[in-house]
Specification:
alpha+beta, four-stranded antiparallel β-sheet, 4 helices, 10 strands
């Protein structure tokens, strides 16, 4: 089956839609690096939802300073790029540091964060499949990640698509909360 890109859409590399940042872990030997207010996202955190709600670990200012230039701003799209969690996607709600197993995309103003998130969900499944067939430990490095391509419509169409998908996700989240309350 041949897939035709809709008119007005273009195929772009991830590196062209924003800055790609690979995370870094502060030294765990220095206990002063951890326990502050800065979220520290790793693939073992809940990356199932659209947004990072909480992280198991946090960093202090000392920890942040030890991994200079690794703080990604709110509304960055984070993708797990190694191991069994490869391809999981979430969006930061606040400035966050990630570990080296996550590549984050700081989306440029020409693109819609939620649209990129939904596009990355599809790409994440594809890279997970490809990686599982090629290496013992599934991995995609920053260079190859930056070269991965997605189909991108004009900004207004991105927003319309993302709004529709987001409304469906909102309804699913509400239904899940209702079910949890009923079970309780």
């Amino acid at each position: 089956m041949t897939y035709k890109v809709p008119e007005g859409w273009e195929e772009v590399k991830l590196g062209d839609i924003g800055e790609i940042v690979t995370g870094k872990t502060p030294s765990t030997k220095n206990k002063n690096n951890f326990g502050g207010d800065i979220p520290f996202l790793t693939p073992s955190d809940d990356m199932e939802g659209r947004f990072v709600k909480t992280t198991k670990r946090t960093l202090t200012e000392i920890g942040l300073n030890s991994v200079k230039n690794q703080l990604v701003p709110a509304n960055s799209v984070c993708v797990s790029c190694i191991g069994s969690q490869l391809g999981k996607v979430t969006i930061t709600k606040e400035d966050t540091v990630t570990n080296q197993q996550i590549n984050s995309i700081i989306i440029n103003k020409d693109n819609d964060v939620l649209f990129i998130y939904y596009a990355m969900l599809l790409l994440g499944k594809r890279i997970r499949y490809i990686s599982k067939t090629s290496t013992a430990v599934p991995i995609i490095n920053k260079t190859n990640f930056s070269k991965e391509k997605i189909n991108l419509p004009p900004l207004q169409e991105q927003k319309a698509i993302a709004d529709t998908l987001s409304a469906i996700d909102d309804k699913i989240e509400l239904n899940n909360k209702i079910n949890q309350n009923l079970e309780a």
